[in-house]
């Protein structure tokens, strides 16, 4: 069976409420071959997972068309400048059409209101008081401006579903045809209703349509502001590139750049695509992608990011990623997916909205029946107007927009500040985090350790407890034997580590290259995870690693323990080198190498920011206890997990999530927890390496450094492109403020309907004689959705002030 799973996003036209979302999702999921469908009201996008061997884009469009909406199949996924341009033109055209309909509806409705509303109709010209003239003025409003309501409502009713358009269509149609019957058959209406003096209600139907369309116009304008981040990101891309082809420099459109092209960038120009510098050097402003305001110095061999700005110097670089593979394109895609995803809190609104419209229709019918039977004279008129008010006042749009608009603004703000949030669920969960666990190497530290000490130990000096040490910056004279011994240790260690990808291995190999030490060939090389490396050099088996490796191979290292402890107390990682002769059985310790990694400038400030938010901070590392504690003390971290094997990181995260008791070893053989237990089980993990991926995936919120591996970034929920650890606290704070906005939006959306629907039904009339005019009902309904979008946009100002 040929199964080809495809995931695509499509623009959807005609959605106005949460009920619309449910109707479209249901229609898409009914298509054979569709595995998932997620529709977002705020972005007006449908993300569909389907088997492309069974389902075509047109089949999806047809399914959506049958329920009264339009799914656009001839657009890209939104990451391309041209696609965005087309969508922008289409949006502008729709907004202009809507503006025309609003203007016509309110102007004609205003004339009808002037000629029919008691108290002001006496001032109107006689022709406006004529019922036939009012009918003529109402027809274009009802069937031209209001055509969109019928276009969505009729197919929905045909498929036994209902949405906000259904409510508006029923309410305005009842008012319009009641008024039309008064114009043509006044006697019949008088006989049915018992009303002496009949008055049409064309003003109700026209003003309602005008006000609802006005609300949609304001809503569309406001929603455009929620997607501002995407527009800014797309606007960053360069339009042309100066490439070298056939020994000539030519300017070509950015779309024509290919992988492998050599591109020249001059001062002040944007870098077209991602690549690696092959000639020259410069200072590059990467703030538009990373949020870091300080320009970064770049030289030959350094990577450059497309859309960043070359501040000074001219250089040539080789294109490595183009089109949808560039970092900017990936950021845009990630932000779009996040903005189109649904937060768990939205499920409540979705469930309620699925029942909302049918319930409102039943309440409207009940209102008509009760008023017609029990209401005062003219009972029919009271019953009809109150029924229309119930249909019009109900607003599922506010519920549908409450969550996605806030998510759009929140994820957009994050992207502008170098915080990429993968989906809405991550943004929601982050505000609950009470514990953040940091990996040490490459996360809290720069991940570029340097060799600080090389210590050679001969058998003679070992017996007399004398050591010969050559440390970086140590100027005391040494004899030739000491130098030779030290070089031997560096040469053997670097030869072993040549086959390893660990950052400590890179530091040792780099030190050997700097000192022009010739490396030896190694056979039977083996990397022992969490322990070190081993191999054969000149028929001698060599070991380089930590205490665990030495203990495993029964190497006696106790004689050097004081020296090791001294180096570890300085925050250095110590590796021991042991050799075994070709015919020998015992390993002998022959030297020590100490490596130190520099703590990132933002590490301490980032941890302090988390602690100010009341978040517990822990560090996890494969380093020994003493080195780990030293680093923890420097950063103000009380909870430190040391000597952790890569495969144990996930286990520790899970133990923290279930509140593992204090002061106990997670694994009795190796792991060690310094300090008290962490009290809360909502855990975020911050890491950058391949070995962090399982822990990132297991945590409630996985946060990857932008400089980390692709595997770590893929496993994470949030990626810090700016590589600034202060952004961890900012991401949590962003989540808290976004959730506060969502809850306020939902409170308003639910509260509005819970309070005003009973008022529209007339519950206040027996006590205070108050009834809700359908015109005021339509105004309240239109403004409710606008207020939700506006409140979400206020989030942007609050976050920027906090920043």
Question: What does the model show?
Answer:
With 803 residues, the chain is of the alpha+beta class. 50% of the residues lie in helices and 18% in strands. It is built from 29 helices and 28 strands. The strands form five sheets. The protein has an eight-stranded mixed sheet, with helices on both faces. It has a seven-stranded antiparallel sheet with strand order 17-16-22-21-20-19-18. A six-stranded antiparallel sheet has the order 6-5-7-13-8-11, with no helix packed on it. A hairpin with a 2-residue loop joins β19 and β20. α8 packs parallel to α29 (774-802), α14 runs antiparallel to α27 (726-761) and α15 (424-430) packs across α27 (726-761). The radius of gyration is 35 Å and the shape is elongated. The two termini are 53 Å apart. Residues 459-483 and 661-679 have low confidence and may be disordered.
Task: Throw out a few tags for this protein.
8-stranded mixed β-sheet; 7-stranded antiparallel β-sheet; 29 helices; elongated
Number of helices: 29
Number of strands: 28
Regions with little confidence, pLDDT below 50 for 5+ residues: 459-483, 661-679
N-to-C terminal Cα separation, in Å?
Answer: 53 Å
**What radius of gyration results from the CA coordinates?**
35 Å
SSE-based structural type: alpha+beta
* Strand order, largest beta sheet: 14-28-27-26-15-23-24-25
Helix content: 40-55%
Short characterization:
This protein is of the alpha+beta class and 803 residues long. The chain is built from 29 helices and 28 strands.
How are the elements arranged and paired?
Blueprint: E1 5-13, H1 18-29, E2 34-40, E3 45-51, H2 57-66, E4 70-72, H3 81-116, H4 131-145, H5 147-158, H6 164-184, H7 186-193, H8 202-226, H9 228-236, E5 240-245, E6 248-253, E7 262-265, E8 274-280, E9 282-285, H10 287-290, E10 296-298, E11 303-304, E12 309-312, E13 315-321, H11 327-340, H12 346-374, H13 379-393, H14 396-416, E14 419-421, H15 424-430, E15 435-439, H16 440-444, E16 450-456, H17 459-463, E17 468-471, H18 480-497, H19 503-514, E18 523-528, E19 532-537, E20 540-545, H20 547-552, H21 561-569, E21 573-580, E22 588-596, H22 603-612, E23 616-620, H23 625-635, E24 639-642, H24 649-657, E25 672-674, E26 683-687, H25 693-698, E27 701-705, H26 710-715, E28 718-720, H27 726-761, H28 765-768, H29 774-802
Parallel strand pairs: 15-23, 15-26, 23-24, 26-27, 27-28
Antiparallel strand pairs: 1-3, 1-4, 2-3, 5-6, 5-7, 7-13, 8-11, 8-13, 9-10, 9-12, 14-28, 16-17, 16-22, 18-19, 19-20, 20-21, 21-22, 24-25
Helix pairs in contact: 1-12, 3-4, 3-8, 4-6, 4-8, 5-6, 6-7, 6-8, 6-13, 8-29, 9-11, 9-14, 11-14, 12-13, 12-14, 13-27, 13-29, 14-27, 14-29, 15-27, 18-19, 21-23, 22-27, 27-29
